[in-house]
Amino acid sequence: MKSRTITWEEPGEAAAEGLAMTGLEYLRAMADGRLPGPPIGATMGMMPGEFETGRAVFFADPGEYHYNPIGTVHGGLAATLLDSAMSCAVHTTLAAGDRYTTLEIKVNFVRPIAVETGRVRAEGRLLHRGGLVATAAAAPPTSARRSAPTRFSRSWSCRRRRRVARGRARRT
Q1: What residues make up the domain containing 78?
Q2: DSSP code of 92?
Q3: In 34-96, which ranges are E strands?
Q4: Does residue 165 register a pLDDT over 60?
Q5: What is the reported pLDDT for 9?
Q6: What pLDDT band is residue 147 in, cutting at 50, 70 and 90?
Q7: Pairing of strands 133-143, 151-161
Q8: CA–CA distance, 115 with 63 (Å, rounded to integer)
Q9: Whole-prediction pTM value?
Q10: Which residue has the higher pLDDT, 172 or 134?
Q11: In this structure, what DSSP letter does residue 36 have?
Q12: Helix or strand (DSSP H, E) at 66
């Protein structure tokens, strides 16, 4: 029998601090350890990479704990990695106080991921940002051992939520 222990910090305080920062400042603060990352990163074994305006990179090391009943990494790891890369590419463009949520994500599974695949990398890029909806795409998660795509995502969109200002919500 194997086991895995996951630890994380309470996410509410970091999220509240993040509302006072631009999206890019907030992501960089988490990446360099000034603020704790979200619990999903610890749960899924994901790590932040690089952040610049309109671009975000994440990594994951596939493990046995990601496996599905057929002996490969569950597609949820790839989908979560891609969602994080795409949503954070949008997040890098947000003003202080702005928030968003995922509207939809489309993922095409091309090839399985396994422990032997090694560290996988997903890069999200902003394609369009309108007043309420933004669209991003992600390069397929790739590894040093296999340069061809293992999973692919075509598009992602999000709906911006109300800006929090002086204790009241207002539409942006």
Answers
A1: 11-170
A2: T
A3: 46-52, 55-60
A4: no
A5: 94
A6: very low
A7: antiparallel
A8: 5
A9: 0.84
A10: 134
A11: P
A12: none
Residue 65 inside a domain? The answer is yes
Query: What gap in Å lies between CA 155 and CA 82, rounded to an integer?
Result: 10
* pLDDT at residue 42 in the model: 95
Whether 88 maps to a domain, the answer reads yes
The structural domain count of the chain equals 1
Question: Once rounded to an integer, what is the mean pLDDT over residues 50-71?
Answer: 96
The letter for the amino acid at 31 is A
Query: 3-class secondary structure for 132-154?
Result: CEEEEEEEEEEECCCCCCCEEEE
- 82 assigned to some structural domain: yes
Report residue 160: phi and psi, to 5°: -70, 140
pLDDT, average across residues 49-72: 96
The residue count for the chain: 172
Sheet holding 46-52, edge to edge: 46-52, 55-60, 120-129, 133-143, 151-161, 99-109
Three-class DSSP category at 7: coil
- CATH number of the domain bearing residue 15: 3.10.129.10
Is residue 100 assigned to a domain?
A: yes
Percentage of the residues of the chain whose pLDDT score is greater than 70: 82
